[in-house]
């Protein structure tokens, strides 16, 4: 973070919807021991006011809830089964050959990805269900990926969604000198090869998350004063992380080594394959929505301000892709409708297809960008093209 201070700032973040969908903008308190970015509230505020009105009307006229429905429940059952069933088959000896066990780890990799993209994500945004307990339960599933939900909510909900593509604030584009994700970041010789090694780094995303990222983030977020926003103390959060890491190790490493009649290194190979797959999938789904040639990257001015209001900023920094692919949208939890998700993060993704029609039309009326790639492959090309240009110092 830039310009860290000891002054506690109260930032009010517009999250687009309140619980009833018809009384304006829900506001969430975010406490940060850092300077916060100021958005330009004078920049066409009528756009988001009108957009919110139209989206509210869509839910009201169709008498539907913004939360998940039967489609979400079925998807949850499928994704959880895709993770748990292969593990059960391995631990009970139903599948015992190296090829069979490796296939089970691969299936679990898809299961991890599905849980992260299509269940946990909505739940930790409070969009899975109106029932807060159910949201917490589904959000807890992040522990089965090796991650800690409170840290994820801070990095994703607070920092990424508030300060999208703003250097020094959005941790999704801050990789501590390993990868250059923004033209505002310093150029280094090593970055010339980042288009080649970035996929490897993406693949170890959840492994790093499991091993060290949560502890590293905990120290940083405690220093920034962000744990209070999650009703946590440093001691309690540390104890929770340690406890969840230990049972996760027991479930996915110790038990398989004890119960599966294979050499330990073969089991660890499968475990690492599972995580590499999930890390690669998760990283590519999110990176292709923000770190592409079409989106903008920002650096706050001397007053710590940016040029647009929050909603318009989201349109400049976010993109959709592959919206015509029903199965792809189903598997990735609607995150290929990233524009709609960023503007309305408390709406469950099962509604994004219909909401996107409203957002696209309204953006066009106000002459605002609506970035979109027809296919996921097109989005990948744009992402790696940008990585190449950034790495070579062309931008």
* Major beta-sheet overview: 2 strands, antiparallel
- Cα separation of the termini: 23 Å
> What are the secondary-structure elements, in order, as H or E?
EEHHHHHHHHHHEHHHEH
Uncertain segments are 1-33
Instruction: Give helix % range.
Output: 55-70%
Mean pLDDT: 90
How many E-type strands? 4
Strands of the widest sheet, in order across it, are 1-2
What class do helices, strands and sheet pairing give? Answer: mainly alpha
Using the CA coordinates, give the radius of gyration. Answer: 21 Å
Apparent shape? globular
Note the quaternary state here. Answer: single chain
**Strand content bin:** 5-15%
If helices are DSSP runs of H or I spanning 4 or more residues, what is the number of helices? 14
Descriptive account of the structure:
The protein has 395 residues and is mainly α. It has a domain at 70-290. It contains 14 helices and four strands. It has helices at 45-61, 70-91, 98-124, 132-139, 149-162, 194-203, 205-224, 234-259, 264-290, 310-317, 326-331, 338-343, 352-365, 376-391, and strands at 4-14, 27-34, 319-321, 371-373. A two-stranded antiparallel sheet has the order 1-2. It is globular, with a radius of gyration of 21 Å.
Summed up, what is this model?
By secondary structure, the chain is mainly α.
